[in-house]
Amino acid sequence: MQEKLIQQVVERTGVSREVAVKVVDVVIEFLGEKLPAPIGGQVKGFMAGESLMDSVTDGIGDKLGSLSGMFGKD
Q: Is this structure's pTM higher than 0.70?
């Protein structure tokens, strides 16, 4: 997905690929920091090529793992 966004920036603005890569990296990092943690992580993962479902299921697995620790199932 990140590659598609880079290509769109190049095509729509006329900037070089190198500049577009930097712009996209800055935007992704900004969103990752400014959005609530679970959403920011999902945005970063999605842009890195994970599907949104992968991000959601990873988050659920993390939560379930935390719950099992509460019940002495480490």
A: no
What tens digit of pLDDT does each residue of 24-70 get? 999 998 988 898 888 888 888 888 877 656 655 555 555 565 555 55
DSSP SS3 for 59: helix
Contacts of 31 (CB under 8 A, 6+ apart): 40, 43, 44
Read off the tokens for 2. Answer: 């990140």
Q: How many domains does the chain have?
A: 1
For every residue of 17-45, DSSP letters joined together read: HHHHHHHHHHHHHHHHHHS-HHHHHHHHH
Structure tokens at 66: 């935390």
Range of the domain at 21: 2-70
Q: What is the pLDDT of residue 1?
A: 83
Cα-Cα-Cα-Cα dihedral sign, residues 20, 58, 40, 51? positive
